[in-house]
Amino acid sequence: MAPQLLVLVIMVMAYFLGSIPFAFIAGKINGIDIRTQGSGNVGATNTLRVLGPRWGFPVLFLDAAKGYLPVLFASLWFVPGEGCILQRVHVMMIAGVFAMVGHMFPIWLKFKGGKGVATGLGLMIGLAPPLIGIAFILFVVVVLIFRYVSLGSIVAALSLPAFFPILYSMGKDRDLFIFVLVIAVFVVYKHRSNITRLINGNESKLSLKKK
């Protein structure tokens, strides 16, 4: 298969894998529409809030897998051909982006999906695991102290470009840095309503219910 055609296949595969609404499915199994419960977000945090850890953590894992697997597949499948300007890392980034787009704008839910944190976590595990280690620690610390998952997600996202120059070469890995920066900005943008609620003091705190 020509490299250009393979990139197209990877993009389509990544989008449709990313668009699987595991939170919505978990809600339906329990007889509810997750979009009408809690924050209304079709993601792992709202599933955790509404259905408890029994369903929230599996949805978190599956949403992360939606980001990781396309990146993994791209790294295994894509081999740059003659005349192809894309390198393997570029195709891995493309796969990750389309997985996130699928999660945020799933065709099955009229393009209204989640905020991309768990899926972004998965794709970053595939692309830059050292950064994810730092981001995860910061996320846990912030959530434990303040009990705001949204705040933890925002801090974790911003830590990715902040710590990149320490762990990577800004010259050699410039394209990866740009990608990480765009992902971080996009995640923060998707949390703009949460930021408003945090400022106003009416953001919901994490409470683990037993279901």
Could you give the topology of this structure?
Blueprint: H1 3-18, H2 22-29, H3 44-51, H4 53-77, H5 88-104, H6 117-127, H7 129-146, H8 149-167, H9 174-190, H10 192-200
Helix pairs in contact: 1-4, 1-5, 2-3, 3-4, 4-5, 4-6, 5-6, 5-9, 6-7, 6-9, 7-8, 8-9
Kindly describe this structure.
It is a single chain. By secondary structure, the chain is mainly α. The chain has one domain. It is built from ten helices and no strands. Helix 1 runs parallel beside helix 5 and helix 5 packs parallel to helix 9. The longest helix has 25 residues.
Key phrases:
globular; 70% helix; 211 residues; mainly alpha; 10 helices; 0% strand
In short:
The protein has about 210 residues and is mostly helical. It has helices at about 5-20, 20-30, 45-50, 55-75, 90-105, 115-125, 130-145, 150-165, 175-190, 190-200. The protein has one domain (about 5-200).
